[in-house]
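Quick illustration, no need to memorize.
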Amino acid sequence: MPDTADWPAIKSLVCIESARTISKKTTTEMRYYVTSLDGNAKQILQATKQHWSIENNLHWRLDVTFNEDKCRTKFKNCPENLSILRKIALGILDADNSRLGGKNKRLKAALSENYLVKLIKGFIDSINTT
């Protein structure tokens, strides 16, 4: 691999083949990774699964709570700015331990200024205690 001297921590180049079956149709995909992990295949596979689990869970929550996949904004920095704002808003919603889902918390906050203030105060308190 060219230019590896610029990345002295590289210990492994990884190729993972993944298969996905939906409605009796199977597709395969090759994913390639550069990692600082030693060449232990089980450890590297576990690390990639953990990464994608976190990534998929966050994406799913953003889509369910904010319909992120339906957003077609493409003007300049708007997509990145909206993504940051959605993640901040998700953090605010997560700081509230009530059993409501994200969409319901958003609706309740839109209808009740007191609840909105409670959410924001709860988020600030959670930041201050960490």
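The longest strand covers residues 12-22.
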